[in-house]
Amino acid sequence: MSIVPKRGVVIDATVVSVIIRDFIQLTERLSSTSLTSLMSDYYEKVAIQVAQQQGVLTSISNYSMVVTFSEVGGADAHVRRALRCALAIAMIAYQTRFWIRQAFPKQGLDKFGVGIGIHGGELVFAEFGVAPHVQQVASGHAVSVASLLAAKSKELDWNIVCSEQSLNAAGAGVKTRHHSVIGADWLKYPVSVAEVVVVNEVESEVVEVNLNALDTTLVMDRGESYERYKKVDSAQYGALVDANLVSLPVVPGYRCLRALGQGGMSRVYLVERLRDGAQLALKFADGSVSQDSEVLYRFVEEYGMLEQLHNPHVIRIYDQGVTDDALFIVMEYLPGGTLKQMIGRDGMELKQALEVLREMAQALVAAHKLGIIHRDIKPENIMLRGDGAAVLCDFGVALQTRTAVQQGIKEFVFGTPYYMSPEQALGENEDARTDIYSMGAVFFYMLTGEKPYLGDTLEEIVQQHLLSPVPALPPRYADLQPLLERMMAKDREQRYSASELLQYLDDFRAGA
């Protein structure tokens, strides 16, 4: 949950200043109704990202906003959360640009861009207005510097301008491309800055840009409350956390053994079921159910979807309950780790890769028959049982398509950029074939150990999903190129359905 600092208390924080470039062009060429709809949609999605990274929106206007990130117990350092939020906002702006081009092709609105400045330092908060309309406003040198960096972003032609001071505080894993120095009359000393393009979740040495480990999932769901956090990464199921550093919850009927992983919205524990000694994974919602009904809704929805799915290659779910006003789900424990860990740098053996693909096709056939699309298929969300069988996990952003169509809901989800479908990049309604495209991208990764598309920025990766040819497999796998072409076709009408894919794989195995 975002924590608003107390009025008048000096805190150390990171400031993210965001401006919309050439906003006057939008006001001149769009009607008031169109502009209001566009900006409401944009700011709603930005607000969700701010909440996920536990920031505080301290000022907003037609074309700018200031967000502050301070220390929050149990969360990453404020500068890292600020950097991740900035990247998310940049991606939202890129998506918005496509919407504008599609909706207003004749208005000459070729570009919708943002400039983002990031700087840290001491802040103090003040309150303005009369209750209940009270606005928290942050003041301090860091706000002024961050706003300056945002304004200079267009001149530099960068999306995200971060001070070197903040980069040094962020630690390892932040990748940059360009460096410069910015001055102003009111600055005592010029500010050294860098263009930020990636914030890796896994700590690694800071290097110049090389997007080989960009696995950030940006969830932008319609109707999310401001209390929503970033969802747990299923890749962390197999990552042991020191139990001495985590307070183990007490859950009736289970004995918590150790923490397996933690995300912004959930914690996952290895537990022993007392009635039979079975080892299972317990996914525990952070926060109080009574205070955050959206968390309750998402957990209930995920449980309801998984409860319908009875397939050996979909994670098994056993129980759901509430204890101490917090919700939990009990599911099978998968000790084999993630597919990403199995792939490694050199890819997998062909027979093994085809078997994983076939097992995932079985899982998708079962899900799609029930009108459920996963929307976030990636190697981290495919896990392995002890016998090596592949299991599709983490339906936290899945969508039940029949319900969505009946209610007229359009939800926007950005999967991991390396595996997102063209329709996800464009913010269009997804369907079952979205999962097929993402599975095709994962299949390429399984065979080659390489992502299907690489680029120096998020935007370049997205453009390749939209425009570049399907990547070519190595010559030794040339007979599988037609399969990949059908799975990763830009036009979803040309893709296999899950059942067609499964039939192809069965026929291929029979003829092998």
Descriptors for this entry?
3 domains, Transferase(Phosphotransferase), domain 1, Phosphorylase Kinase, domain 1, Alpha-Beta Plaits, alpha+beta, 14 helices, 35% helix, eight-stranded mixed β-sheet, five-stranded antiparallel β-sheet, 512 residues
Describe this structure in words.
It is built from 14 helices and 19 strands. A hairpin with a 3-residue loop joins β10 and β11 (266-273). The strands form five sheets. Strands 1, 2, 3, 4, 5, 6, 7 and 8 form an eight-stranded mixed β-sheet that branches. The chain folds into three domains: 11-210, Alpha-Beta Plaits; 234-332, Phosphorylase Kinase, domain 1 (2-Layer Sandwich), CATH 3.30.200.20; 339-511, Transferase(Phosphotransferase), domain 1, CATH 1.10.510. The chain has helices at 23-29, 32-52, 78-103, 141-156, 164-170, 293-308, 339-343, 350-369, 401-407, 422-425, 432-448, 458-467, 481-487, 498-511, and strands at residues 11-20, 56-60, 64-70, 114-130, 133-139, 160-163, 174-182, 191-199, 218-220, 254-262, 266-273, 279-285, 317-323, 326-332, 372-373, 382-384, 390-392, 399-400, 412-414.
